[in-house]
Amino acid sequence: MASLKINGVEHQVDADPNMPLLWVLRDILQMTGTKFGCGKGLCGACTVHFNGTPMRSCSLPFAVAIGAEITTIEGLSATGEHPLQKAWIEHKVPQCGYCQSGQLMSAAGLLLTNPKPSDTDIQQAMMGNICRCGTYPRIEAAIKSVAGVGIYQPKAQPTTDTTPSQGGAK
Fold first, then answer.
1. Which of 15, 123, 153, 170 has most Cβ atoms within 10 angstroms of its Cβ?
2. What is the pLDDT at residue 97?
3. What pLDDT does 153 receive?
4. CATH architecture of 2-77+153-166
5. Domain residue limits, the chain
6. pTM of the full predicted structure?
7. What is 83-146's CATH topology?
8. Closest CA to 154 of 69, 56, 67, 29
């Protein structure tokens, strides 16, 4: 049994240390906002923040996440009130929506480290996220619309989940 801090909440998890964090999130903890895309860390659909840095959870072993601060899309705002989430709606970014949690997490990571990014900064930070619907210009516009307003404030809940979880790789 190991403790994972996700979105400010401690979770007790019993899983194979080599299981990708993505499957711990989705299958064991039932946090399904983070999506499976390619399983190789290439598409960005599974992006979460690992100690504030965007990382691909499909290629991050569970054991590596122990002791780290993990933020998922649910940690930005479970109700969609995060400024980036609002900008996504305002700029009509989502089409199929599948890549959106990863896109949002990469955008939030960019703005955490660079609150006033240039067009080039945005394009470089987002290039690892694939959008099959091709909404890249809208994604860039949404990021620009909230750049510089200090938007990255993950919603942390200072509670502990003491319910043991068990699971295996699927």
1. 15
2. 86
3. 45
4. Roll (3.10)
5. 2-77+153-166, 83-146
6. 0.85
7. DNA polymerase; domain 1 (1.10.150)
8. 69
